[in-house]
Amino acid sequence: MSFLETDVLVIGAGPAGSAAARTAAQLGSRVVLVDRHRFPRDKVCGDALIPDALEALARLGLNARVLAEARPLGSLRIYAPNGRCVELYAQMGCLPRSRLDELMREGAEQAGATFLAPCALAQALDRDGVIAGATFEPAAGGAPITVRARLTLLATGAAAGPLLKFGVCERRPASAIAARVYVRAPQRFAVEHDHLCISYDRHVCPGYGWLFPGPDGVFNVGVGYFDDTKARPPTTNIRRLFDRFVQTFAPARALLAVATPLTDLRGAPLRTALAGAHLSRPGLLVIGEAAGTTYSFSGEGIGKAIASGIVAGEIAARAPRDTQAAIDAARTYAACIRSDFAERFRAYKIAQGWLAYPAVLGFLARRAAAGGYVRQQLQALLTETGDPSELFSVAGLLKSCLR
User: Checking DSSP bridges between strand 176-184 and strand 260-261, what pairing results, if any?
Assistant: First the structure.
């Protein structure tokens, strides 16, 4: 067995892990970043970069690098179950996760982090109840690698296995299931479709579907449904739900009529609403989707995953090198995440419940199309300049009727 000593160990090199590694390394910490895959690697995701993601990338100093490769987009179209469309405006982008994650991993290494991959997590190092690193099995074989660290950051996504290994799993099943394909459209078609599109189509509601245009005429087309709600979609077979969506939603049908398939349908679990795992334990900070930083209702999670990584990286880098500091850092991180994000995630969870009532969504779309209060609230939600609990409440629904 080989041994490494470091200040900060980050497990998982997706957006949250790479953001944490880059942040901690820039602040002077020794950082080891480990992933079970060799990069670049594919990741099932919608690929959309909405304003919160671009803001987080700017904080990392990576937004210009990412936007140079992403397709720039200026609006989001949301389709209600009755087919009515609401268009909202903001600077956004779309870039396949395989490329986004590679750019972010490179950013972590350029800041000074050491990257190890492919290495599978074997077990946590637990010293009298305090996490002190982890042991990994190299995919190529050979001796296990033990990385000792004063703080460990867990950024392993929706999988329950790593959460169980570190004793922070509260709910084994994921919150949602999503699946997507990539297709390439003719240039003329791609140029005309310069917006993100999310559909709560009545044929899949309370599931949802999306069409996101990326670079080079490549579209990300997908569906998802939530597993942690009483309302159920017409089918929980993700392939059947996808087929239903692309057959009944007119923009999806038009796209697939002219597009060339590039991949098969691939699915993945999601963890949402800051639920399903403890945010921390002594010596360990849980970040990104492992902590449930994906929004209910929309399935968007890149921005908050990166933001959680930045918070964790800052706390980890500034923590003194002793056991009490590892305990304090865990408490501080959990408190910061709850303070910064909990109310917004709670509001989106309430909005998710509205998917069981297509008539309500149709009413809101009609009111938003007319302008006024609902449109202002939805625009503020997209740009994160408003309080999401204002619209997603009984009082908000009453205001929607009057204003």
Answer: antiparallel
